[in-house]
Design brief:
The complex is a heterotrimer.
Chain A: H1 3-7, H2 14-52, E1 55-59, E2 68-72, H3 74-101, H4 105-120, H5 127-145, H6 152-183, H7 188-193, H8 200-218, H9 227-233, H10 236-265, H11 270-293, H12 297-324, H13 328-363, H14 374-377, H15 379-393, H16 401-412, H17 420-452, H18 459-462, H19 469-487, H20 493-501, E3 514-515, E4 519-520, E5 527-528, H21 530-547, E6 559-561, H22 579-589, H23 591-594, E7 597-604, E8 612-620, H24 624-645, H25 652-670
Antiparallel strand pairs in A: 1-2, 3-4, 4-5, 7-8
Chain B: H1 3-10, E1 38-44, H2 50-58, E2 70-72, E3 81-85, E4 88-89, H3 90-102, E5 108-112, H4 114-118, E6 128-130, H5 132-135, E7 140-142, H6 149-160
Parallel strand pairs in B: 1-2, 1-3, 3-5, 5-7
Antiparallel strand pairs in B: 4-6
Chain C: H1 6-37, H2 47-56, E1 61-63, H3 68-87, H4 103-124, H5 127-158, H6 163-172, H7 180-196, H8 215-218, H9 224-249, H10 261-287, H11 297-317
Helix pairs in contact in C: 1-2, 1-3, 1-9, 1-10, 2-9, 3-4, 3-9, 4-5, 5-6, 5-7, 5-11, 7-9, 7-11, 9-10
């Protein structure tokens, strides 16, 4: 927010201010416009590939030795289209946001680059190209996370993100080098063709390494820790891009390498699917638990991303597991669920982060405990966030409902005649999905009810005003996407069918579910009609309103009245439930998992120990995984580094000797 | 003795109901015109708690005011009437008005006990604003110090018409 | 729409109307059973209807600072419940909306109503409203796993989560109903219904003390017609869920997908009897128990979750081979 001040340390003249403002506007329009245009191109390209067949592009001169190979097929096309759609909404939004929040020129320049890099990842057709675009995406996102680098929390989040993303990259690098070496080539086509010959040990190593690398990008447990740090600290359009589009690339990687390329040769072993399901379920439940007790709006949304990526991974795992048992029809169902969840998550998470951004721009607050009363001050933004929250909670009429419904259907219709593993795994998965949905509802009710309804809990929230038209337009696009996936998923039907057909290892040849006005499942009895439910619900609500008019002619005129304050004159806004108090029961119920640090301090009067002067209650909800897993590791690394430091006393002679010894070792080994 | 056999042995505790009051001179038109439903919000304006005990008695199993459609509710928004006990003290003056104003129209006010009706033993006290009738319009008065549950119920039935 | 399905539309409409009219009577009946077992005379079966009519004639009060969420929530709760009443196979199996929403959809609609009311509680900005919302949503979150697992267990025999299919499968194969899986699912679902409708021992619907409230605390600010709608809706929720329970586990007397007028009549009488018996049993049971401390409720729900999990596993392991 103070970046502009940094650029002008002296008091600017009116002319300078005017010129600076004009320049800022031009930058915002250019950057946002370019992002939106790139996004639109991405959507068009993705759709043309899905419906028109794969496209190839080879630029031999761009990379030495191997060249850049772009190869977009239906699966990649889907991810390019999703990224494009998110970018289009974010781009338009950025035009208004950049001016309101004074985004600096550098991040505005990197934003379209980031979008381009993200769209190149699914288009990469060879290992080298993939690694290059992946790193480009990671670097661009890191720069964007650091937009407000003058704040200490941002820098700390940036370091966290940089380390984790690079460790993830190292794992991916290793896996793809292995894959390329074993598959006998650089391009994905070559590797796919010979992937059946890859020895099973190498396959296992590649699977585990890619799971590590892509899992960390997707924010799966226990590699999620960068997500709740980086997303809140990045500017909101960037959070939206990262949370709705970039994390999808982790899912893309798992589908592409583990399920598609490695699945070409022979079916994946049972434990691959099972591992994915376990990681997915644990991430989903842990993510949603953290979201349900989070009080920072953007942190809550970041944890909700972990939750949704967990659900998607669970669906992927179910698809892999079921197809490894030969239940191709149900596997296709699970895969459709995964793809639909990716679409709906992208839609509602974009919207949620953009709405959170407009709250941040209007109030400077992310803390739900200080928000409230925005519904009257920012009605547009409130409606937008409401649509997003409904989508995230997985309730009917929400964007996420149909995807979760398909996932549940695939889980309950799995074959159970003679496979004990499926008999045990599927009920537990349903339990995990259900707990995730239930807690997700609680988290979203908290975010919307405490953040937007009720009365403002601080002066900043009191003074909030509505976002400008460009921001609302960007959000409106995302809201439209939410509405489509909520009531008319039929529009996605042909799209998903084409993508599914391109994935023969996951039941692509079996018919997927029919996404008509009625969603019907092939081979099993089960159907749902979200559009019809929506219409019927509107009719039912109107009927209920009509019933409430009964007896109206006997009724005195309706009035507005102050709140019932139990006889007192008025209720102060501080008496309201806050996000912390709202989530307190859940925090207590899941005490063992969440491990909150609570501290009650009672001060007595000096005169008498029976009279209490004041009671202080403090609670801190940190990430228990981070504390228990990361802190010891970081500490160990630090200790080890201290030890290694002794080898760097500062003597040039010694360093020359190191160099000479190193060279000798290399020569001996290379010989 | 098990719960079931106790329930069987005790049977019905509630006293048989006396005939519904029909004399128009003594009855109050039910606030909404619907007979047999009256929800009350109770306000203790400064009572000695004698009347509270009797009101509790009126809703006990023996008197069972609920059989005449009367219920005590927590929120004045759900109530049709205010049942006030005790003399109005200075501290409870404003809360009494706030409670009355929170009750949606149409509504009745029932003053229970001598203190609420005319100030009783505390009339003219330094901490006292006056009787309930001095502060807000009262529709039904139940004199007595304290009035018996039967008297309270008889008064309530003039409002519910049941 | 063919002439055949006209009767099923009639049956569905009758379901909705019967729930609208009958729900307050069910609640009145339950209160009456309780009153008589406690030695009281009771207000009579028609008392909730009298209260409703009276509330509908009272002034509507909109508390200052509330939004459209507060104003619309009662209608949303009532609307979702009416829609559920139209979907469920209560009188006949062939509701035109049956293919539009399976049991997962019905559960979703139920939660949509709950969410609307919790948001309304928060919207008032009172301490009690927030408290009620927080408690209600916590219970709802913990109920969801049980309810979906129970759905899972029930869907195993019929191989579908669509209600007509489940009920038809159970009617065709009544032996399935006394299987361990089905019985466990019954108990799990019963606990869930008690929790979702705010009955003892989870919530005390007749408490006057705000601090002990769950459901009631959210609706403290409602007056007049909106309050009437809230109470009507909560009676309808109870009725509809009892009806669902009755037909899932006692699937007899339900008119078919293409019912005759006589079938509809029989279906109506039978479901009314089933609901009354279940409601009476629930009310009689409530006499013997006290409300659980709020933080003991999760233990009850965890128990029901376990039962539901066992129900699914049992229905897998004891499933009669279908082919």
């Amino acid at each position: 927010m103070t970046t502009a001040l940094h650029e002008f340390p002296t008091v600017p003249t009116p002319g300078q201010t005017l010129r600076a403002a004009r320049r800022a506007r031009v930058h915002a329009v250019l950057s946002g416009g370019l992002t939106a245009a790139l996004g639109t191109v991405g959507v068009a390209l993705g759709l043309s590939v899905i419906f028109g067949g794969p496209r190839e592009l080879r630029v031999g001169w761009l990379l030495p030795l191997v060249g850049v190979q772009l190869n977009l097929d239906a699966l990649g096309g889907l991810f390019v289209a999703v990224t494009g759609a998110v970018s289009a909404a974010v781009g338009i939004y950025t035009v208004g946001y950049a001016r309101r929040e004074h985004l600096a020129r550098f991040p505005l320049t990197v934003l379209p680059l980031f979008v381009a890099a993200m769209m190149l990842v699914p288009a990469a057709g060879s290992v080298t190209t993939f690694l290059l675009t992946w790193e480009l995406m990671a670097a661009a996102s890191l720069v964007l996370v650091l937009s407000e680098h003058h704040r200490a929390e941002v820098r700390s989040a940036g370091v966290f993100y940089a380390v984790m993303t690079q460790l993830g990259f190292a794992a991916i690098l290793l896996a793809l080098v292995l894959l390329s070496a074993a598959g006998g080539g650089d391009s994905f086509d070559t590797i796919s063709a010979s992937s059946g010959d890859i020895p099973s040990g190498t396959r296992t190593a590649i699977f585990l390494l890619t799971l590590l690398g892509f899992g960390s990008k997707a924010g799966l447990l226990p590699l999620h820790a960068w997500l709740p740090r980086a997303h809140p600290e990045a500017p909101s359009p960037v959070s939206a891009l990262m949370s709705a589009a970039m994390v999808n690339m982790g899912i893309y990687g798992i589908i592409r390498f583990d399920l598609d390329i490695l699945g070409q040769g022979h079916p994946s072993p049972h434990w691959w699917g099972l591992t994915l399901m376990i990681f997915g379920a644990v991430s989903a439940v842990f993510g949603v638990l953290q979201a349900s007790v989070a009080t920072d709006l953007k942190r809550l949304l970041a944890y909700s991303t972990t939750e949704n990526m967990g659900l998607i991974t669970l669906a992927l795992g179910a698809a892999a597991l079921l197809s490894s048992y030969g239940a191709m029809a149900v596997a296709a169902l699970a895969m459709t669920a995964a793809l639909l969840l990716i679409l709906s998550h992208a839609a509602f998470k974009t919207l949620a982060f953009l709405a959170a951004g407009s709250v941040l721009a209007a109030t400077g607050l992310r803390d739900l405990d200080k928000l409230g009363g925005l519904a009257r001050r920012m009605p547009g933004t409130t409606v937008m966030f409401g649509i997003a929250a409904l989508g995230a909670s997985g309730l009917p009429l929400g964007a996420g409902f149909v995807g979760e419904w398909l996932l549940l259907q695939s889980l309950i219709h799995s074959p159970h005649d003679d496979t004990t593993l499926l008999m045990l795994v599927m009920p537990l998965s349903v339990g995990a999905v259900a707990l995730t949905t239930g807690l997700g509802i609680a988290a979203m009710v908290k975010a919307f009810g405490v953040g937007f309804l009720a009365r403002p809990r601080s002066a900043a929230a009191e003074a909030a005003r509505e976002a400008p038209a460009s921001m609302l337009t960007g959000m409106g696009l995302a809201a439209a996407a939410c509405t489509v996936s909520a009531v008319a998923p039929v529009l996605f039907g042909p799209l998903l069918e084409r993508v599914l057909t391109a994935l023969p290892t996951l039941g692509g040849e079996a018919a997927g579910p029919m996404l008509g006005a009625y969603l019907r499942l092939p081979g099993v009895t089960g159907s749902i009609a979200p559009g019809l439910i929506a219409v019927a619900l509107v009719v039912a609500v109107l009927l209920a309103l009509a019933l409430a008019r009964w007896g109206g002619r006997h009724r005195p005129a309706a009035v507005q009245a102050p709140l019932w304050a139990c006889g007192a004159d008025s209720l102060s806004p501080r008496m309201q439930y806050t996000a912390t108090s709202f989530a307190e029961p859940l925090q207590r119920v899941f005490d063992n998992v969440l491990r909150p640090e609570t501290d009650v301090e009672v001060t007595h009067y000096a005169e008498s120990q029976y009279l209490v002067e004041k009671v202080t209650y403090r609670t801190l909800q940190a990430d228990p995984v981070e504390q228990r897993l990361y802190t010891p590791v970081v500490r160990a690394v630090t200790a080890w580094a201290q030890y290694v430091r002794r080898a760097h006393p500062g003597s040039v002679h010694l360093y020359l000797a190191y160099g000479a010894i190193g060279l000798l070792v290399v020569l001996v080994v290379a010989r | 003795m098990s719960w079931t056999s106790k329930i069987r042995r005790v049977g019905r505790m509630a006293e048989p109901a006396t005939p519904t009051p029909t004399n128009p001179a003594n009855t109050v038109e039910p606030p909404t015109g619907v007979t047999g439903s009256l929800q009350l919000r109770h306000v203790d304006c400064g009572s000695c708690n004698g009347c509270e005990l009797e009101i509790a008695g009126a809703f006990s199993a023996v008197y069972d005011a609920e059989q005449f459609g009367v219920r005590v509710v927590a929120s004045p928004r759900h109530a049709d009437g205010l049942i006030a006990t005790g003399v109005v003290t200075r501290n409870m003056h404003q809360p009494l008005l706030n409670t009355l104003n929170s009750i949606p129209q149409p509504r009745v006010v029932i003053a229970v006990g001598d203190c609420a009706v005319d100030g009783g033993a505390f009339a003219g006290g330094y901490a006292v604003v006056g009787s309930v009738a001095d502060v807000i319009p009262v529709d039904v008065r139940v004199p007595g110090c304290p009035p018996s549950p039967a008297e309270i119920i008889a008064a309530l039935r003039t409002v519910t018409g049941r | 729409m063919s002439a055949m399905s006209v009767m099923s539309v009639v049956a569905t409409l009758l379901q909705v109307v019967a729930v609208l009219v009958g729900a307050p009577l069910v609640v009145g009946g339950m209160r009456q059973v309780r009153a008589r077992l406690e030695g009281r005379a009771g207000g009579g079966v028609g008392q909730p209807w009298r209260d409703l009519r009276k509330q509908l004639r009272k002034q509507q009060i909109t508390p200052l600072g509330t939004t459209v969420v507060f104003a619309l929530a009662p209608a949303v709760v009532a609307g979702t419940t009416l829609l559920i009443a139209a979907i469920l196979p209560l009188i006949s199996l062939g509701s035109p909306l049956d293919p539009a929403a399976d049991l997962f959809g019905v559960v979703g609609l139920l939660f949509l109503g709950t969410v609307a009311l919790t948001l309304a509680g928060l919207d008032t900005g009172t301490a009690f409203g927030g408290m009620g919302s927080s408690r209600e949503i916590t219970i709802a979150a913990l109920v969801e796993p049980t309810i979906l697992l129970a759905v899972f267990a029930l869907s195993v025999p019929g191989q579908s989560a669509n209600l007509a299919a489940i009920v038809a499968a159970a009617a065709d194969n009544p032996g399935q109903l006394v299987s361990p899986g089905s019985l466990l699912a019954f108990v799990a679902l019963a606990i869930v219904i008690i929790a979702e409708t705010g009955r003892l021992p989870v919530d005390n619907p007749s408490t006057h003390l705000e601090l002990t409230m769950i459901h009631e605390a959210m609706v403290l600010e409602y007056a007049g017609p909106r309050l009437a709608l809230v109470e009507w809706a909560s009676a309808m929720r109870l009725t509809v869920l009892l009806g669902l329970m009755a037909n899932l586990f006692l699937p007899w007397g339900i008119a078919g997908a293409d019912p005759s007028p006589l079938g509809i009549l029989i279906g109506f009488v039978v479901i009314s009897l089933k609901i009354l018996v279940l409601a009476g049993a629930l009310a009689a049971g409530e006499v013997f128990i006290a409300k659980l401390r709020y933080f003991r409720v999760p233990e009850l729900l965890a128990g029901s979750f376990l039962l539901a999990l066992l129900a699914v596993t049992a229905s897998y392991f004891f499933a009669t081979p279908t082919n």
